[in-house]
User: What shape does this take?
Amino acid sequence: MEDINLGLIAIGAGIAIVGSAFAAAIAEKEIGTAAVGAMAEKEELFGKALILTVIPETLVIFGLVIAIMILGLAPAL
Amino acid sequence: MIRTQKMAKIRITGPKQNLRSLVSELHALKIMHLIDYQGEEFETGNSFSEAEEISEKLVKIRAIISQFNLKLESRKIKDLTVCNGKFGKIYSEFTELTSKISSLTERKNSLTSVKEIAEPLSSLNLDLNSFYGYDSIAVFKGTIKKALTTQEIEKITKDFELFSSEFEGKKVIALFVSEKFKEQIQALLSEKGFIELHLEQEINLVSVNSELNSIEKELAGFKTQLGLLKETEGQFLVDFEFNLEKENEKLEAPLRFAVTENAFIIDGWIPEIKAKEVEYRLRHLTKDKIFFEFLKDKKNAPTSLDNPSLVKPFQFFMNLYSMPKYTEIDPTFLVFITFPLFFGFMLGDVGYGLVTLAVFLFLRTKLKGEGKMLINSLIIASLATIFFGFIFGEAFGFEIVEHPILFRSHDLNLMLLISIAVGLIHITLGYLVGFYNVLIQHGLKEAVYEKGSWLMIEAGGLLIISEMILAMTSFGNIVGAVLFLAGVILLFKGEGVQGIIELPSILSNTLSYARLFAVGLASVKLAVIVNDFATAFFAQGGLMIGVSILILLLGHTVNILLGLIGPFLHALRLHYVEFFGKFYKGGGRRFMPFGAEN
Assistant: This one.
C-alpha cells in the first residue's frame, strides 16, 4: 500500500507545480502583450514593463514551495 | 555614494556685456544644469546675433541630410570656420542638382502624359492633326469598354465615319459625326464606357519619344552626381550638423535667461564640490563684474548619481528603472552588493562562472556605453557565481567536492530556509531605507507610520512564528501579537485602508525569495541530465564518444544561456519588485549640464 501513497504524494506535488505554472503563464501572456504594446510607443518603459511582466512568476514559486512541503510528507524520500 | 550628488543652486547676475563670454565659458565647462526662466517679472533674453544665420544653415543642412537619408555617427569638428565655405559649395551643388532634377522630372511627366494620349490614337493610322479644328463636325476619340457597332450609330445618323483599333488590349475609336448629333452620340458612348482622349494641338510623336529618351539620360546623369555627392560629403554633413547644433545651443541660451535692459540673471544647478571653483573662474573671467549667489531653496534639484567606478556599472539598473529623486537614497550601492550575490547564489557553478566570465571579458572590449555598463556588472556577478560554485561544490553540474559546505540539490529544506531568511533580511533592509527616505523628506512621525509600522508587523509576525516552532518562552507569543497589532494600527493611521489591503504582501514578498534556490535547482538538474546522457553515450565507446562530447557542448551551452537569462531576470526582479517596492519612488530629473553631450 505504501507504494500507492508515495505515488499519490508525487502526483500531488506535480499538480501543485503544473497548476501554478499554468496560472503564471496565462497571467504573463496577458501582461506581456500589453507591455510590448506600451514599449512600442515609448521605449523607456522597458524597466517598468519588465517588472510588470515578471510579477506573476511568484505564482510558480508558491507552487514549488507547496510541492516541497507535500514531498516532505513522504517518509521514504 | 548612498546619496545622490549634492547640488548647489546658483544665481549669476551681471551686466549684459559679459553675457556672451560667460555663456561660452559655461558651455565649455559642462558643469551647470540651467533652469529655464519662467517667471512674469522679467523678459527672457534674445539669442545672440549669429543664431539666426546658424539656424538657417541648420535647416538647410537637415534638408539635405533627410533627402540623403543619412544615418551616420557624428563626430566632433575642431575648426568650424573652414566648414562654412565647404558647406556653401556642397549646398549650391545640391540645390543646382535637385532643381535640375525636379524641372526635368516635371517636363518628363508632361511629355509622358502627352505620349499616353497620342500613342493610342496613332494606332488608328490617322494623321494626328486630323482630330481637331472642325466647325461642323464633332470628333469623339478615345478608349471604349463595350463593343460599338455601326448599326447603333445608324439609329441616330447615317452620316458618320468610325475608325477603330486595339492598343495594349484596349479598344480605341475615333468617330466623326455632324455637330447636330453630338449630344445623342455622347449619350450612346457614355453607356459604352467611353473615355475621351483630349488632343487639341499638334503633336509629333517621334520628337516626343526622342526628347523623353534624352531626358531619361540626363536625369540618370544628375542622379549619379547626387549619389556621388552623398557618398563623398555625407560624413561631413552629419559632423557639421552636430557641431552647428552645439553652437546653436550656445547662441540660443539667452532665451532661457531672465534679462532687464542692462543685466541678466542665470539660474542653475552646479555640483556642490565644484561650485566654488566655478565661481572663481567666472569671476576671474568677467573681472569681478558678476554677482555669484548661492540660493537656499533646494526644490526640484536634478539627480546626478555619484558612485565609485566599481559600483558605477550598476547605475545601469537605475537607468533601466527610473532615476532616484534628489532627496532619495541612491540604491545603486545596495544593488551592487546584493545583485551579484543573488545571481551567484542562483547560478552557483564554478564551470559556468568561468565560462561566462571569459565571455563577458571578451564582450567588454567590444561594447560601449550602456552595454558596457551591463557587461561590467555581469562580470562581478560571474565572480560571485564562481564563489558560490565552490560553496556548493559544483562545476558543470558535477560535484567536485565530496562534502560541500552546502549540498543544494539534496538539502532542499535548508536551501528554502536560507532563501527565505535572505528575503527577510533584504526586505527589512528595504524598509529601513524607506524609513530613512521618509524621515528626511517628511519627518519622524510619517516615517514611523509608513515604514516603522511594517517593521513592527514583520518583527511581530516573526516572533509569533518562531515561538510556535521553537516554543522557547511563555510570553513571546503575546509580545509578538502586541507588536503585530500595534504595527497594523500605525499602518492604518499612516496609509489608510490601502495599507491594510497590502498586509498579505509581506508574506508573498518573503516567499518570493524562494526563487533564489528554485532557479538554481532547475539549472543544476538540467546540467546533471546533460552529464548523465553524455556519460551513458561515453560508456558505449567508439563513435559514441564523439556524440557524448557533442551532447556535453550543446547541453551546457544551452544551460549556460538559460542560466544567464534566468538568474539575471530573477535577481533583477527581486530588486525591482520586492526590494524597491519598500522604499523607492524614482522619477528624478537627470542632471544635464549645459554644453554636455546628451
Summary: Chain B touches chain A at residues 320-322, 412-413, 416, 508, 511-512, 514-515, 518, 569-570, 572-573, 576-577 (CB under 8 Å). The mean pLDDT of chain B is 87.
